[in-house]
Amino acid sequence: MASLLSRFCRKLALPGSAHGSRMTSTTACGSETVKSLNLYSAINQALHIALETDPRSYVFGEDVGFGGVFRCTTGLAERFGKNRVFNTPLCEQGIVGFGIGLAAMGNRAVVEIQVADYIYPAFDQIVNEAAKFRYRSGNQFNCGGLTIRAPYGAVGHGGHYHSQSPEAFFCHVPGIKVVIPRSPREAKGLLLSSIRDPNPVVFFEPKWLYRQAVEEVPEHDYMIPLSQAEIIREGSDITLVGWGAQLTVMEQACLDAEKEGISCELIDLKTLLPWDKETVEASVKKTGRLLISHEAPITGGFGAEISATILERCFLKLEAPVSRVCGLDTPFPLVFEPFYMPTKNKASSSSSLSSPSKTHIF
Amino acid sequence: MAMWFARSRNLVSSLRQNLGLSAILIKRNHSSPRPVFTNYELSSKVFLDPSTSFRHESTAVESQPDLVQQSDHEDDAQELDFPGGKVGYTSEMKFIPESSSRRIPCYRVLNEHGKIISDSDFIPVSEKLAVRMYEQMATLQVMDHIFYEAQRQGRISFYLTSVGEEAINIASAAALSPEDVVLPQYREPGVLLWRGFTLEEFANQCFGNKADYGKGRQMPIHYGSNQHNYFTVSSPIATQLPQAAGVGYALKMEKKNACAVTFIGDGGTSEGDFHAGLNFAAVMEAPVVFICRNNGWAISTHISEQFRSDGIVVKGQAYGIRSIRVDGNDALAVYSAVRSAREMAVTEQRPVLIEAMTYRVGHHSTSDDSTKYREADEIQYWKMSRNPVNRFKKWVQDNGWWSEEDESKLRSSTRKQLLQAIQAAEKWEKQPLTELFNDVYDVKTKNLEEQEVGLKALVEKQPQDYPTGFHI
By residue range, what is the domain housing residue A293? Predict the structure, then answer.
């Protein structure tokens, strides 16, 4: 219930540091100017900077010219011209294929897939081409300049085709990187890192947070490193691992658990492929318990990879089975969304986070 | 404005007559625009005869037989406004037929006997160029034969030949400049051969030895060479087509005097990436030459099972792309068509589609026995009577540029060189084991470092479980 309220009834301002949590980005603030921005504005800023700092960079996809259906590309075409920022035909395999070609010639191609639910026509180009471009050519060619951005995740009313979290499909592909930011400040830094990383990156943006999340974002050009997880809340009794919008939900679960005397350590994975095993391992060796949560369906979800790895590395330190609080094994439903979602109450009720009397299995 | 033109014919015609308002009514322009060719410097003079002149008439866009039958109704001169522009209207309900009454004819210069058809439009080819083209076609034949045999002997794991398609391979390559970026499908090693890839380099890739630029990661024939502007072959069909559009666009943005050139078979045109590639190239106005080798077969699938259109050339117009059908077994026709298409692509910054008609004489690959699905007679016919190499040879010989002595010298020396290359490649050191883990990313990631350490330990512990020769 609390999770429903927080999702639907008020603007989601990310909690400050009052409870020792750092949902907001921990990028050093210092004396540089910051501005209160939502997620799509932070992404927009990153794109402006990317195009400004590299004249051989391009942004394209369906409807990006006028600013994009989520406004992430506002002002780019006007500022950098239609040669560098342009609409493409409605064809995801073409968008990614074209982007691979541009990147293979040494350019940076930041392509947009309108929502992650529509990324599948491009799956062949991503898996068979982009991911293997460098390896199969013996490093004679590469398309490292390719970054694929896609809004993902639940939005409250998205149903089957505007709510999907397809990250697990991509985490199974050696040769690409998968990055998912949790907040505006994180998104700007991670997106700039992804664009400048010499490998093709799939960058999933939690669309729920485009307008809902507001944060102080530094105005300058900064990057947040890939493949480095962050402990955004320190604790000693249990480790929670998540990414993207789900961290806000888990944050609430942590607060609830704290009331019952359970000290939670919350980790933002940020990069799912290649993922920072060391940070999670160190945390679980300290706490002895692990709970992973993601919106994507539980079976075959990325939580399974984290669970298996941590079991291998921390088996003797674990005091309880690894818990996964995830979406159900159904297509993402419309009217049933509140039941489908891995809410904070489901997390709180899971065996890891609650006292034995309140245990439920999800 | 649409309402204006929706009025009755009588009103319009009376307006026309009485008020001289014909200027308002936009006459439909039936002729296709003719491209304007200006004199320009060609970037590469190496393969071009300095005295080359062009027969521009042949390269002009022909007005295609209109798919919509003309009517003389005045209605047609009136037009409606829609988002895509103005379009005439008719009250006569007529469907565009599924096919034209006549198939698009095929451009050809040499007849089957190697004689130039009189009044042919074509770009003259010098002796030097012609001899080189012939030599390379013959070399490709010998290479295909010997590598195929090597596979049969178990020395390499796989091979596929370009038998029957030597003219497409060599003549197209000869018509390009070295700066043109080639994105092949997989039956175009002749393009790489033309550009200077050596027989040894081909052999190294087939054997996946330490000298293979691809570092032994892919099956034989998956050649690639950045030095020769030839993108590495990948098995998935047609994926290179939208990439070629991106490459062409990159060249356009860099204002290079170069284009992207990409190849596809008849079967590959059924893939979604064919549609994606052509549409993107057209919309982005990218300099790309799409060359479709219509060789009649996609493994065992005949073209009658592949599409219902008049081949591939008619699909070009659907994307707003200029297209031509050419006799792919006629080296001179292929040369002229590709050369012209390339110039159009670069000077006009637009894509061009070439459908080269040919026949796949060989099996699809060493994993295929095509006698299982087609008549041996058919294969034999194409091999003997419609052989592109023999046809070009006749023309070159008739010009006095090639003799039987030259022929036997070339074939025996090429054969010898190939056998030596294969022997050397076979003996060459293997790739070090670390190359299994490199280049997945630009820098080896932690998980790969761990896996490499683990694998090395395992191999050292149980070497009998693993093939020898891979240096740890």
Answer: 230-353
